[in-house]
Design a protein that fits this description.
The protein is mainly beta and 405 residues long. The chain has a domain of 132 residues. The chain is 4% helix and 69% strand. It has a 22-stranded antiparallel beta barrel. It has a two-stranded antiparallel ribbon with strand order 8-9. A hairpin with a 7-residue loop joins strand 3 and strand 4. It is globular, with a radius of gyration of 25 Å.
Length: 405
């Protein structure tokens, strides 16, 4: 019997075997119904009806050591008579202290470590042999989604092991190993490191490294520093180098790829309670020797005290390898009353890539409203229109009804 067929049984056994808490189990979460209308690149109209459900159940024992969590979606294109498809993103049981200093998670779940991430039908084990050390092991049937559902086949597995340290003064570190098998063939085999460190009272640093054991090369190097030299001023610097990574079983793995790297400097300054300034400069380097430069600058103004609303204006500029870009954004939000928020804005970009002989432009307008109808009921609507050089308009609309329980 396949694991996915056994999964509901495992969850039921977990619930039945747990002693009930004094108040009995409780369930909380959100049900979100969304209606989306748009046209695709060929001009065909679509109307999607989607239902999301997220929940958390607890209270199965007196100490709340057992919880059940779930999140999924069903959707259908009602405009074109689509029969619909469903996606189960996660459904698992968490049991803390199943064994001394050991937590267990069983079911469909998403895990992330420095070396990689995956959705699996399987298990996760967190062992805390000491207060400052955690050993994590996770894995199972690798869940892969395509446009119409799941495409996972027999022999598809993913797993990881991570060792985390929290005893570093003012910091933490983790070492991990991640492996994926595609129809029992080795598809990915990576190791990773991540760490953070507080530097004095006003600065902190981070680093993340990832290496592919199959190609014997680093696929990601990311490091940065953030500091607040003044009370209202934040300055950060980041360096990133990344190489596209494909499964060894994919045909794309035989093609040569180039590295991409950038260095960025970002600032955020709160002039007053009403006005804040932000900016970023980025220098990019491509594997073929191309260089690109880009910058962003923005201002947010809050004309009223409190959180009634704000107005944002920003500019973006880029030149060099890959093409040139010049654009701006003007947007705002306003709390009409305690339960109603209005939003709107405009973005316009003028761009020219290396493959173009002339420049193009794109303009996007959007507006929306979110209203609290009842204590546990909210509704939201959003309409946007994108006008480009190639197409006159591209109108998209979304209506959402959220029920919290």
């Amino acid at each position: 019997m396949k694991f996915r067929a056994c999964l509901p049984l495992f969850l039921l056994l977990g619930l039945v075997s747990a002693p009930a808490g004094a108040g009995g189990p409780t369930v909380s979460g959100r049900a979100s119904t969304q209606l989306m209308a748009y046209s695709d690149e060929s001009g065909k109209d679509h109307v999607l009806l989607q239902q999301y459900l997220r929940f958390l159940s607890r209270g199965f024992d007196n100490n709340n050591t057992l919880t059940v969590s779930g999140y999924g979606r069903v959707s259908a294109d009602v405009q074109n008579g689509n029969q619909g498809e469903g996606r189960l993103y996660y459904l698992y049981v968490d049991k803390r202290e199943l064994l001394p200093a050991t937590d267990v998670r069983l079911g469909r779940q998403f895990f992330w470590v420095a070396a990689g991430s995956a959705i699996v039908d399987g298990a996760r084990l967190d062992v805390h042999p000491f207060n400052f050390v955690t050993l994590t092991a996770a894995g199972g049937r690798h869940v892969v989604f395509d446009l119409t559902g799941e495409e996972t086949g027999r022999g598809d597995y993913a797993g990881a092991v991570q060792l985390s340290f929290d005893a570093i003064p003012g910091g933490s570190a983790a070492l991990s190993w991640f492996r994926v098998r595609d129809e029992n063939e080795l598809a990915r085999d990576t190791v990773g490191f991540e760490g953070t460190k507080q530097l004095g009272k006003n600065a902190d640093a981070f680093a993340q490294l990832r290496a592919d054991l199959i190609s014997e090369s680093f696929t990601e190097i990311d490091a940065g520093l953030r500091t607040t030299p003044l009370m209202d001023l934040t300055v950060s610097a980041e360096y990133l180098r990344t190489v596209p990574e494909f499964d060894a079983t994919s045909i794309y793995s035989v093609f040569a790829v180039e590295a991409y790297e950038y260095g960025a400097l970002r600032t955020q300054y709160d002039v007053s309670s009403h006005l804040s300034l932000s900016g970023e400069y980025r220098r990019e380097r491509f594997g073929d020797g191309g260089i690109g430069n880009g910058a962003e600058a923005g201002t947010r103004y809050k004309p009223w005290d409190g959180s009634l609303g704000s107005v944002y204006g920003g500019m973006i500029w880029r030149t060099g390898a890959g093409g040139d870009l010049l654009g701006f954004e003007l947007s705002g939000e306003y709390a009409y009353d305690v339960g109603t928020l209005l939003v709107g804005g405009i973005q316009r970009d003028a761009f020219q890539t290396d493959m173009m002989t002339s420049s193009r432009h794109a303009t996007r307008f959007w507006g929306g409203v979110e209203s609290k109808l009842r204590k546990n009921l909210t509704a939201a609507a959003r309409v946007e229109d994108t006008i480009t050089t190639e197409s006159g308009k591209d109108v998209r609309a979304r209506l959402t009804l959220n029920v919290n329980f």
